[in-house]
Amino acid sequence: MIRTEGLTKRYGALTAVDAVSFTVKPGEVLGFLGPNGAGKTTTMRMLAGFVNPSSGQASICGHDVDADSLAARACLGYLPEGAPAYGEMTVGEFLAFVADLRRLRGAARARIEAVIERLQLQGVLGQTIETLSKGFRRRVGLAQAIMHDPPVLILDEPTDGLDPNQKHEVRSLINELAGDKTVIISTHILEEVDAVCTRAIIIARGRIVADDTPQGLAARAASGRLDDVFRTITA
Length: 235
What we know:
This protein has 9 helices and 10 strands. It has 235 residues and is of the alpha/beta class. The strands form 2 sheets. The protein has a 6-stranded mixed β-sheet with strand order 6-7-8-3-9-10, sandwiched between helices. The protein has a 4-stranded antiparallel β-sheet with strand order 2-1-4-5. The radius of gyration is 18 Å and the shape is globular. It starts with a strand and ends with a helix.
């Protein structure tokens, strides 16, 4: 569903992402774990087609993100870091706008109501996005990401800045969505990977340093085999 081969991004002398290669199979929920500045968001932006790689390749559902960008994006739902949206729009206006951008018509247009119900947004449809709590902004962000029922979801720091109750709500939503989708969650929170992911990749200074199940990583850490890795990502 997702494949990267030698994916690299350089900004002048800085190598933000350094020859990253991995695949994500159907139904997997991959936690992309690392500290701030590790290269997580840059990798997510390259997968989503918002940043061009300096070298290497990425594909979504077999479509090259660079050479076949529209087809790749059609298969993808993307929640950027911070869940940005047009703050002056109401929730209802924004979701209708996203449906127009996705060219949803007829029966597909009816997904708006289904998404609103699934994410429990009925009570805030007339409220402007800038007045919403962070938790509801994340819900709106998730709504726009799943509006077209994509097989792949990329969620960048989906619970960052939320209080414990809001984090629990968003993680529960992600668990529900993961039943029929392939998901990547970029995060710096170990607890989040353990709560929602079936597999975890640790990235530090632009390079992959570990790839295992959350339980496997925990076992390796307990035995001391990940000491150097965790010293790297917490340095």
